Amino acid sequence: MSLHLSKREIKVLLLLLDLEDSVTTKDLSETFQVSVRTIKYDLENIREWFKDQNVELKTRRNKGIWLDIPDSERLTLKNEILEVERFETYPDQELRVNQIIFRLLLVNTPLTSQTIADELQVSRNTIISDLDRVEALIITYGLQLNRQSRLGFSIVGEESKIRLLMEYITQKEITEYDIYQIMSQFVQSDEQKKVREVSIGINTIFQKNYQVALKEMTNLIDHSLLNQFNYAEILSITLRVAIATSRMQLHHTVGGYKILSNQNVLEQKQELPFLLMLKVFSHYELPILADEYLYIYSDVFVANNQQDIVQLSEELIKDVSEKVNFPFYRDRQLFTNLFAHLSLRLTKKHLFINEYNPFVDDIKAKYPDLFIAIQEASQNDIGGSALLINDSFIAYIALHFLVAYEKNLHSINVVRIVYVCSTGLGVTSLIEQKILEEVSNVEIAGFASVLNATEAIEEKNPDLVLSIFPVETINRPFIKVNPLPTKSDIQAIQDEVNKILADTQSGKVPRLIPRREVKEKQGMEVESRDLLVKAYIVYEELLKAFGNQLNLEYKEAFLLHVMLMVHRITFEGQYENTGNVVKELLLSQQTLVEKIENIFAKNDLMVNQAEITALLNYIGEE
């Protein structure tokens, strides 16, 4: 049976299945950023779907909408929607536009509007209207919609831009359920491994190619390789291999036809992108081209590795503060976290432009001014990286800024929570502060990704597990939440917390870990992380200040000295000035001394003359 529901209606339906209590149409309208009238229209279709399943969607004035069915039936209905029928939904215009683009990019001849209409089962006039939207979208990627009289439509432009567009569409349409299904295959034992079909690029050659890439990836990857990547990188590599395969089958290459020369070296080093490329390309008898490997391996060539990350972090904070009229520049923690994020993001081994980011839609909808401000500031401040500034990149940056809105929170260590989501300092800080602000009597015991969720849950032994993915194989109380928790999510968390506390007080649930120990350990981890980042920032700035004067033979020792120096200053253990200050040396290097004092002052560190004297000993002889 087909689901005649839009993408939003499916999300509303899934939310109703997740909720045990009632929810009002007003709450739903706020959650999905649409009018109450629109929600009422959606509910009419949803009610019909439930009726087909012999389930009654209950409503009552002044109470709201709810389902009165057991958990087992809720899970059955969710699986039916997500696993079986989700891809038979009636496509809205946005989904149709994406499907049209994929069809145009994965054929060698133009397609007529009637052909596309027949394939998508809509009218020709609908497709004509959709093609205007197609043209508007692809122009932003530097591509053109070629209209040929009596022949049809095609998309033309640079191959690299075509592939970026294909990546954008696949990352846009992929769901949390897809991510969970894909990633769960990588952590299964060989006996359990079973490649489930993922309907990406449905009814095109890409769909089959992606399935082959996914199967080969599950055979290749083991825990030793798994530690090199997070799930977004694994997803990007798999998608890129499938995209490269599909385009090469149509005789479109991303560069020249030079064969990759160092294949033996890459195979010996067990480079995962190469191993997957080799398997899939061999399956389709495609040549292993050097430029194709560069495309699959990384986008690192678009990043400016010479950019001053300290200066960039300061400029982003200053510009965003001015654009949204909020004093982010006063928050040194924001600077520390942003510096750490950008340092990893712009210099990492595998840098993929279109990384999956489950927070994009929520942040764009709930914080549009901040999103636009960061987008504009990034485009101005990050040199030579225009392709890097996409929605995913901006959303991850926005998470760090959002943390600054929700400072100075104090948690009460009662119910311990493990949160399964994306990784990253900004993500974890924002989620932690959001939950601690709005849910009483909880603490965050830790965060985990899909790849290490089981191990993290066993290690942390939490009372409650929250996840943006539908994790089903855990023996703890579990709540699936949105990437940025909604009001309904917060209420569900609070209800479960209250239930756990009641069970604990009655003796039904034993406490296995003392609360105070966990809290103190968590605080130490955060403080030590921040101190290390600050010390490294000071080290980089001192390197620039010393310039050619630094004795390069002692560069590694200089790093260690600075790290320990920052530690001494932070914990009030500086060298004593008495007997440790060389006035003549300080006077002879007066300009450098002023730079050193400014660097430490800028990082909220008060340095004395004894410590500066010790630093100056690293100057080489002229």
TrEMBL record:
Q: What SUPFAM superfamilies does the record point to?
A: PTS system IIB component-like, PTS-regulatory domain, PRD, Winged helix' DNA-binding domain
Q: Does the keyword Ribonucleoprotein apply?
A: no
State the UniProt keywords alphabetically. Answer: Repeat, Transcription, Transcription regulation, Transferase
Q: Where is the PRD domain?
A: 304-411
Q: Which PROSITE patterns match?
A: PRD_2 (PS51372), PTS_EIIB_TYPE_2 (PS51099)
Tell me a GO biological process for this protein: regulation of DNA-templated transcription
State whether keyword DNA-binding applies.
no
**What Pfam families does the annotation carry?**
HTH_11, PRD
- Name of the protein described by the UniProt record: Transcriptional antiterminator
GO molecular function terms noted in the UniProt entry: protein-N(PI)-phosphohistidine-sugar phosphotransferase activity
Domain PTS EIIB type-2 stretches: 415-505
InterPro entries according to UniProt: BglG_antiterminators (IPR050661), HTH_11 (IPR013196), PRD (IPR011608), PRD_sf (IPR036634), PTS_EIIB-like_sf (IPR036095), PTS_EIIB_2 (IPR013011), WH-like_DNA-bd_sf (IPR036388), WH_DNA-bd_sf (IPR036390)
Q: Which organism is it from?
A: Enterococcus rivorum
